[in-house]
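Hi all, long-time lurker, first post. I run a small reading group and we've been trying to get comfortable going from sequence to structure in the token notation. Rather than ask abstract questions, I figured I'd post a concrete chain and ask someone more experienced to write out its structure so we can walk through it together at our next meeting. Sequence below, copied exactly:
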Amino acid sequence: MFKTEKERKIIFLSIYSGDVDRIFVRSGVLDGLVSAGHYVVLLVRGDDGEQEKIRYYQDSYLREGVVIEFIPLGMNAFEFFAYHLAWNSLPSYSAYVKRKDLYLKHKKKFRYSLELLAGFLGRFRLWRHFLRSVYYHWPDAYCKDLFDRYKPDLLFAPNMFSPEDCRLLRYAKKHGITTVTTMKSWDVPTTRGFTRVIADRILVFNEINKQQTIDIGDYPEEKIRVMGFPQFDYYVRPELRVPREDFFKNIGADPSKPLILFAIPGDFKLPTINDILIALDNAIESGKIPRDIQVLARFHPKYRSPAETLKNLRHFIMDRPGTYFTDKVELSTDAPMSQTFQWVFTNKDIVHLVNSLLYSDIVINVESTITLDANAFNKPVIMIGYDGDQKLDYWHSVRRNYDREHFKAVLESGGVAYVQSHDELINAILRYLKEPEADKEGRRRLKERLLYKVDGRSSHRVVQYILEML
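-- Answer (accepted) --
Happy to help. Here is the structure in token form:
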């Protein structure tokens, strides 16, 4: 599309993490904005010393119409305080669970009392408006030099709760620059994403997110657009699918045998995961589950897992996805901010994920978003709702996570098997192997309620909703 220099607009697009890169840049959003004839300045969280990260972004995205700038970490004392006060003010059960988890870990009663008070006050819109007003009026000149140099027409901030995006949104709003924001995950409205800055437009994944954004995000309905999941656009692109034989050869598996994809959680979510993996391996070896079953154990790219210490599983293939900028990355929820953006998904990684899902007969996970990815392929899903060989109370058990708002909607759909023991896990696997269509009506409901549209056009909708604001 030809535009004169006067007609071409300048768009700031911030990249907080590998998740944001995969969902809102590589998926087609960047290409769409540039194809529309506009300039895009990618604001990448990092510094000039991160040579591998610089090389990756230059090789991946630098071309006519695209500029890459690195922005400093946005966390400081005030942002730290604002972030914690904000998420504690979310009037959701998810925030209550997170609050309780932190108390049980650190045993700080006074702090916990203040957090409970914030949670109570967060039920009232007046309190939420007060927090936003304080945040908005706090003096700040974050990235002022970039705003002055480029004079952007629009800021697209895809991670509404990060300190970087919040500070960018605040500066843009104060200086009359059009703002569009969104969330990097479907759980954000109830777990972390207190809307410290109300943007001119917010994009959400599904209708449930839309209602949450109205109810506790305090957005008027006319500012909200439903986009679907841009990362699911990959799943309908035939060029990303490889022949079964080639994929199985790549992972060291037999293409003539069934494959189970087991998404391994981070150690913080289920420390006893090894009990379950060993029990599953023994069940296959003993013949309780057909002995030709192969299990592809896919680690979370951001987190370590005790499963990485298992060396003698006979029916498992261990798989750590992602491309890392450094081998010094700390895979932990306690990692410092500087180490939380040290991985990305390249095209190769995305092809690997697409085919891991495509050729799996069953997908097993522990309260993971990969449930929705599997549903996009209409795959049977088993969700682990027990703590291995241990019997833990509710507040130390993985069970508590399934009562959070976003996963209650998953379980209520009837589209997954929720298991609470080794025997239930074995029985669910046998059932789905025998009847792959079992729970298909539940999967249909799950797709309808949570996935919005898996039509390959979610990234197009993101571009459309941004361009409408220029």
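A couple of things your group might point at:
Residues 77-130 form one domain.
The chain has 19 helices and 15 strands.
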